[in-house]
Amino acid sequence: MLARKGPLPDGFLLTRLAEDAAQPSRVRPKSQRARFITKSGSCNVAHKNIREQGRFLQDVFTTMVDLKWQHSLLIFTSAFLCSWMLFAMVWWLLAFAHGDLEPRDPHEHGPVPCVTSIHSFTSAFLFSIEVQVTIGFGGRMVTEECPLAIIVLIIQNILGLIINAIMLGCVFMKTAQANRRAETLIFSRNAVIAPRNGRPTFMFRVGDLRKSMIISATIQLQVIRRTVTAEGEVIPVCQLDIQVENPLRSNGIFLVSPLIISHTIDRGSPLYELSAQSLATDDLEIIVILEGVVETTGISMQARTSYTPEEILWGRRFVSIMTEEDGRYSVDYSKFGNTVPVRMPSLSAKELDQTRGIQDSGPHEGKPQGWGLVRAGRGGYRRAGGRACDDAAAKPWYVTTKKVVEKERKGQKKTVKLEEIGREIEEETVEDMSD
After folding, report:
1. Residue range 114-127: mean pLDDT, rounded
2. CB 258 within 8 A of CB 330
3. Nearest to 434 by CA among 377, 381, 375, 373
4. Does residue 246 surpass a pLDDT of 80?
5. Which run of H or E residues covers position 260?
6. Which pTM was predicted?
7. 397-408 burial, b for 16+ CB within 10 Å, e for fewer?
8. Within a 10 A sphere around the Cβ of 394, how many other Cβ atoms?
9. Torsion 363-365-367-369 (CA) sign
10. CB–CB of 307/271 below 8 Å?
11. Which H or E run includes 83?
12. What CA–CA distance (Å, rounded) separates 88 from 127?
């Protein structure tokens, strides 16, 4: 439910400055490994000793789009200058071969030149510019005296159109790249781990600053950590997917307002053994990837960020930033990354499950088994059946569970209360129970 406009609890009115001061400082040494994805979303990976450099030239267009702006502008300017100079040399050679560069009396009528008003290399360079960019000042023009000059004119026009198409296409693609739209997608600076529905949950917040939406937005989480296999092989970069909690059973989100993306830390989670103490020393990085289609342009986009252990806050949750005002919803981005402390044990999810009596049980992993002591009748104890429990979520250890079992004896029904000792078990029919 959204909070309506009105007085809020004191815990929700903390300012950003107060929150930053209240959060514990967990500074790790700079000697730790660098992160793979920066907070801005760029990949922090350097490729070295690439011997097959020619592969980049096989895809010239993509290579030019990936270049920096200063390099792209340098290539853009050099391409035009080189083509102008090349054809200026061709026009000058045509004029020189035809004898148009020889000094003549302006009052005498000599032979018709290939190109009028070309007397030097400078005039040939100006004519080359006029032909390629189709300016046409009118002082110089090709005559029908030289068929070769007409062929050169056609070739320069075609080549000029090709250069214009390539260069303008590169500039357009660089300005319309998908990562430009990602600049208005923001992620919370810190992620949090807090209890939600009785289970520890990893959470972070994502928001879109523009009114135009991201269509078919999906979000993906991955954990990158250093692992060692059973054979002793060291895998420096091991990528593990994290399931995002969504009632639609998919990674799709409707990003019309800031959302808190959550991941329940259960038995199948890579964070199952993560505790408050191990979080400070664990060498992991959680990568967030948001993909979608820009509504206004139809271009696919991707936004990325990551969270390192020092950016994951244990026992805190995000404050509410959405209120209902005058018939519409209002979002306060000044509290976008603010968190408040909550009561949470420092144990990992695995240790909590062990405390509640949920243990690893071989093939029925993730389901607590029904073997346990049960008090029956007048204080006697027996062992419950060995069938696995149902798929219902395990209840906390402090919840008292009582079951009522009916039996038939000589046509009469008798009700016996069974009190669970140790863990919850499924109902079973009790037969031939004596007094």
Report:
1. 90
2. no
3. 377
4. no
5. strand 259-264
6. 0.61
7. eeeeeeeeeeee
8. 21
9. positive
10. no
11. helix 69-98
12. 7
Least confident of 18-32, 84-98, 112-126, 217-231: 18-32
Paired tokens of 145: 């005296």
Angle at 279 between CA 278 and CA 285, to 5 degrees: 125
State phi, psi for 396 to the nearest 5 degrees: -60, 160
Residue 333 tokens, joined:
């981005």
Tell which residue, 195, 244, 201, has the closest CA to residue 219. Answer: 244
Give the integer Cα–Cα distance in Å for 417 and 427.
Answer: 11
The pairing of beta strand 322-325 with beta strand 328-331:
antiparallel
- Non-local CB neighbours of 264 within 8 Å, separated by 6+ positions: 196, 197, 199, 200, 201, 245
Q: Do residues 144 and 115 touch, judged by C-beta distance below 8 A?
A: no
**Pick from 73, 83, 80: which is nearest to 170 by CA?**
73
With a CB cutoff of 8 Å and minimum separation 6, the contacts of 331 are 207, 257, 258, 321, 322
Amino acid 411 reads G
Nearest-CA neighbor of 112 among 84, 141, 91? 141
**Biggest distance spanned by C-alpha atoms of the chain:** 141
Q: What residues does 291 pair with on adjacent strands?
A: 218, 302
The backbone torsions φ and ψ at residue 292, rounded to the nearest 5 degrees and listed phi first, read 180, -175
Residues 66 and 42: their CA atoms lie apart, in Å, by: 13
The beta strands (E) that lie in 1-131 are given as 3-4
pLDDT band at 420 (very low <50, low <70, confident <90, very high): very low
DSSP one-letter string for 272-313: TT--HHHHTT--EEEEEEEEEEETTT--EEEEEEEE-GGGEE
**CA–CA dist 207, 37 (Å, integer):** 19
What residues have CB less than 8 Å from 315, skipping those under 6 apart? 193, 194, 276, 341, 342, 343, 344, 346
CA distance 290 to 255: 11
